[in-house]
Amino acid sequence: MAERLIRIGEVARGAGVSVRAVRYYEQQGLLIAERSPSGQRLYRQDAVDRIRFFQQMFAAGLTSRRITELLPCWDSGHTDANQRAMLRAERDRVQAKVNDLQAALDRLDEVIAITDTHL
Amino acid sequence: MAERLIRIGEVARGAGVSVRAVRYYEQQGLLIAERSPSGQRLYRQDAVDRIRFFQQMFAAGLTSRRITELLPCWDSGHTDANQRAMLRAERDRVQAKVNDLQAALDRLDEVIAITDTHL
DNA sequence: CTAAAACCTGACGTTGACGTCAGAGGCAAG
DNA sequence: CTTGCCTCTGACGTCAACGTCAGGTTTTAG
User: Fold this and answer.
1) Are B104 and A59 within 8 A, CB to CB?
2) Domain coverage including residue A20
3) Can you name the residues that pair with A35 across neighbouring β-strands?
4) What confidence tens digit (pLDDT) does each residue in A77-89 have?
5) Nearest nucleic acid nucleotide to B39, CA to C1' distance
6) A48 CA from C12 C1′ (Å)
7) The domain that contains B1 carries what CATH number?
8) Domain count of chain B?
9) Nearest-CA neighbor of A49 among A6, A100, A82, A90?
10) Quick check: A101 and B109 CB within 8 A?
11) How confident is the model at residue B119 (pLDDT cuts 50, 70, 90)?
12) Confidence band of A1 (pLDDT split at 50, 70, 90)
């Protein structure tokens, strides 16, 4: 059977983002949609997963520009030297951020422990 | 001996931030400075450590407003119920962020491993 | 058939932590 | 004394990922 296409509202609800966000992703070249004869955007089911993936990368601090540059790595599984360098750079950056956050978390836990002592 | 006071440039260099940033912290109520007769800001040595601490909290996603609300917890070691709730909320938020970042990191490592296979 | 709900394209507004520029004063060295 | 760096107070600019509003079309439910 032909693939069932869904409209933007369903995609947004499915991925837990706003309709505006989905349009924004298209504007940034992250997510291309087909169009119905009347001009409405039509998506395949996997658009939901792609958006969830975008959210994950956004949370990791990657910009939409960087994601567009790295999308072929996921879609084709192949990379050039430049993309590999970017991947490693982002990986290292995220790793450093995890370390920073963990340190901050420790300081928060520290003061929580101290103040709880005074109960 | 009386405490040696330093000017804003030295503070900024010591903490690795811009002079503008230090002024901004004062504007947000994070860091109060004495003033010289001519109006220049004068800081104690520990201002550098305080700024490093601010940077750590900023990196963890706390706003300057939230930090001002929680500063007494560090300065006095005492908290009220409201502050304890905020501390735990921030701790949980940071913990969740660490988890998200770790998941993103895993996905990056995943694609790096795959693309390295194709060398 | 009609009204509500969903969709469309601009386009301006928001938030936080600063960057940057303008114009003016302050401070140690030579 | 003047050169040059540091500091001051506004105040507007920046960036990213959307939020929000306006004004109009389309789809759907009854």
Assistant:
1) yes
2) 1-62
3) A41
4) 888 899 999 999 9
5) D8
6) 29
7) 1.10.1660.10
8) 2
9) A6
10) no
11) low
12) low
Q: CB pairs below 8 Å between A and B: how many?
A: 98
Q: How many CB atoms lie within 10 A of CB B90?
A: 21
What confidence category does residue B47 fall into, taking pLDDT thresholds of 50, 70 and 90? very high
Q: Going by C-beta distance under 8 Å and a sequence separation of 6 or more, which residues neighbour residue A109?
A: B91
Whether residue A103 lies inside any domain: the answer is yes
- CB A40 within 7 Å, strand C: yes
- When pLDDT is averaged across residues B82-104 and rounded to a whole number, the result is 95
CA–C1' A38–C2 (A): 21
Judgement on whether residues A55 and A102 belong to the same structural domain of the protein: no
- Closest nucleotide (C1' vs CA) to A23 is D18
Residue B74 lies in a domain: no
Say if residue B41 is in the same domain as residue B86: no
What percentage of chain A reaches a pLDDT higher than 70? Answer: 97
Q: Are residues A58 and A113 in the same domain?
A: no
- Domain final residue, candidates B13, B35, B61: B61
A-chain residue closest to B86, CA distance: A112
Q: Which of B55, B69, B101 is most worth mutating to test chain A (most A CB atoms within 10 A of its CB)?
A: B101
CB contact under 8 A, B105 and A74: no
Contacts of A72 in chain B (CB under 8 A): none
- Give yes or no: residues B50 and B103 share one domain: no
Contacts of B41 (CB under 8 A, 6+ apart): B7, B8, B22, B23, B26, B33, B34, B35
Tokens 């409209």 sit at which residue?
Answer: A7
CB atoms within 10 A of CB A73: 20
